[in-house]
Amino acid sequence: MWLKKTVKVVLLGASLLVFALLVWGLVFTKADPNVATDAVNGSVNNGQKVAIADAANPAGNAAQQPTDNGATQTPTSNPTIPATPTVPVTTPPSTGGTTTPPTTSAVAPLLTLAASPMTITSGSSSTLGWSTNNTATAPVACTASGAWSGSRATSGSQSISPTSTSTYTLVCSNSGGSSTKSVTVTVNAAVVTYCGGNTPCYSNSDLAAHASGGSCWGYITYNGLSSVYNIGSFAPNHSGGSSAITAACGGNIGPALTSAPGNVKHTSALKNTQATLNGYRVGYYDAAKP
Amino acid sequence: MPLSNRFSSVAMTLGSIGKITGFIGLAMYALNLVYATRLKFLENWFGGLNRVYIAHHILGGLALIFLVFHPLLLAGKIAFTSVREAALFFLPHGLTPVGAFFDANNDFHYEVLQQWAILFGSIALFGMVILLVLTFFVKLPYRVWLFTHKFLGLAFFFAGLHVIFISSDTSQSPTLKWYLIIMCAIGIIAFIYKTLLGRILIRKYQYYVDTVEVVGGSVTQLVMSPVKQRMMYKPGQFVFIRFLFSGVDDITTEWHPFSVSSSPKDDFLRLSVKALGDYTGALVHLKHGAIAEIEGAYGKFSYTNYSNYQQIWVAGGIGVTPFLSMARSLPTDNPYKVDLYYSVKTRSELIDVDVLAEISQIQGEKFRVIPFVAVESGFITADFVSKTSEGIKDKEIFICGPPGMMKAMRQQMKDLGVPNANIHSEEFSMS
What gap in Å lies between CA B49 and CA A262, rounded to an integer? Predict the structure, then answer.
């Protein structure tokens, strides 16, 4: 019957084709040379070295491998390495000869990994960016290690905020091999300035330590700058009496000044007070200072 | 992707046809599962349940062909870029780590999911191939074959998983996506209805055996009564019957189809079965009271389906059974004019001639029985029928008998000018 015959032919034909395909595709093709460079963007600088090695066949097969397998080549001009792995490398004239690695089917992915910026101060962040090629023909899997871990997409970016200098490594592989890249992000300790950079800079605890006695301190904030005065020393010279002064010791003396009884002549701008107290300034104040 | 791109090169064309075969193959598979449900509307479409099964057989083979081409053509497309990748296409890889499913990395997700989808597709296709090889090419005992055939529902389920998880540019289109979902749903529902829940959902009638007698040399006549509900049927239809507790060795428990030889007006249900094998030969040993389950009735082979009252019935051997039912059901004020040609090899094979003679007496000229014995008169021909019935061209012809006889008679009648649409035959075989 026609149907039975057709089914028979189709099944037998398909089995034969699949078998032939498996034999051809798996037995008669070899894994590719692994082209790893220490260039970041697919180009090498004059003087940089390009290493060509077949991970599966390090000893090399004269018919398939470049004759200088394992040796490093130093291009004198700037060869660009294209995304598909055909890397013609011209040896320097003194040794002569050209090597052309063969193109074969599945190739290890080309991976680029970069951090921007490469140096940060503690507390701020940087962005890691990476990309691979070759994901369409052979599925690529990427794994992070070092200061980060887990699986990653074949391309992407990630924000990082290391607290100390860290190295981030990414390994991307497919059926043709793998590529590894690392990048180190330097972290500098944050420089924090208090008192706007003025010195000496005193904190709340300093004030608290001079909150009473003959040399107690207080601060006035004028035009954004907080100055610390030894109002204890000034107190005897205060025409309003020393007790009024020492009552404000150890903290902000601004409110005490402005709320003094009306006929006292320092309700005018604090700058007058500042001028008077100038000789008694001991330093500056920043509440944020630990 | 614009349509023009899809056929822009040999590789692209292979890929596109590969996808198309997948879509068509899936629809055929789903439809075939519906064909197996025995729902009544299918009988109307195809003109009888036996024809539904013939369609099922053909569609199954076609679905297999399309679905085999599906991965083959897609691999062909890949081979243009890389033979190695094409080979790897048939070997799902990168299935682990399964943990990839649970991490937020979507690209990695995608790659692993694709490989699982391909794995499901491979399971479905390999399963289908094996089960259909068993159907088309390997001779198995009926029970064994029937058991294996039901696993095609499982293969379809895996095909459904493949369809859900595969990420192809065609699955981006909402129309195609809905098409796939609907096809899978139809197939799964049909399979669940018939194979998994058939016991509950499909109506069965319980009958018990009243009498068993042997007539015509090797024909077992079973007369049965309903235990509870009577089955309704038309004259000429057939049923599926099985005996669960017959107590007879060779009466196995699977379903068998037999024509009903009683009239729907009768109180009893009568089956006349010729002993042709182990099962049919053992029916004679059934005891009074043996319980049978009956599913039916099926068949479009009935004079009541046609308005042409001038009819010629040609019966060969045991093919007389539906005509016995039809003859018994002719009403007394019968508008039909029927000539029944009953052809057998030897005279001893004739069954129920007394019944037919009685009906002929009652109906007079409106029902004539012309027995035709091969050893005495040779093989019956359309010519003989035409002469004896005074013309056959404007009459409705019914033929039932051995396949060879039916085929020959039909051809002869067509040669005499009878339109093919006027000739109705009930093939006992299902393929």
Answer: 115
pLDDT attached to residue A260: 60
Q: Is the whole model's pTM more than 0.80, yes or no? A: no
User: pLDDT (tens digit, 9 = 90+) per residue, A247-260?
Assistant: 778 888 877 766 66
Q: Could you tell me the two tokens for B135?
A: 């159907």
What's the pLDDT at B361? 92
Query: In angstroms, rounded to a whole number, what is the distance separating the alpha carbons of residues A127 and A142?
Result: 18
B81 and A154 within 8 Å at the Cβ level: the answer is no
- Test B94 with A8 for CB contact under 8 angstroms: no
CB atoms within 10 A of CB B393: 12
Contact A284, A225 (CB under 8 A): yes
Q: Which DSSP state fits B91?
A: S
Instruction: Tell me what pLDDT residue B225 has.
Output: 95
C-alpha span between B189 and A145 (Å, rounded): 49
**Rounded distance between C-alpha atoms, residue B262 and residue B342, angstroms:** 17
Predicted pLDDT at A64: 35
* Residue of A218 and B314 predicted with greater confidence: B314
CB distance B87–A17 less than 8 Å? no
Residue A117: cis peptide before it, omega within 30 degrees of 0 = yes
Peptide bond into A93 cis (omega under 30): no
Q: Residue B84's closest chain A neighbor by CA?
A: A25
* CA dist., res. B54 & res. B64, Å (int): 16
Q: In this structure, which amino acid lies at residue B364?
A: G
Residues of B near A (Cβ–Cβ under 8 Å) read 57-58, 61-62, 64-65, 68-69, 72, 75, 79, 81-88, 90-91, 93-94, 100, 103, 105-108, 111, 114-115, 129, 132-133, 136-137
A residues 81-140 lying closer than 8 A (beta carbon) to B: 105-106, 135, 137-140
What residues of chain B score a pLDDT lower than 50? 430-431
